[in-house]
Amino acid sequence: MAEADGEVALRDPNQVVSEIETTRENLARTIDALTERVSPGNIARRSLDRLRQQVARPEVQLIGGAVALVTAGVVAYSLWRRRR
Prior knowledge:
mainly alpha, 3 helices, rod-shaped
């Protein structure tokens, strides 16, 4: 590595090789983590987990029940109108 005055600093070659290996290992771990994060199967699994957590919330269940009740009412009304 060059110093500010243009001199070349002498470094232990074994230390340089060790730093390169450490950097390479860190890069490999980072790439593995990114690959795991963007895997389509893992994205789908995480999305499904989030959906399940949201549906399990009491306020969502209350709204879902109301929507189901209104839907059932609309279907019943539509069937009743057809029979008349």
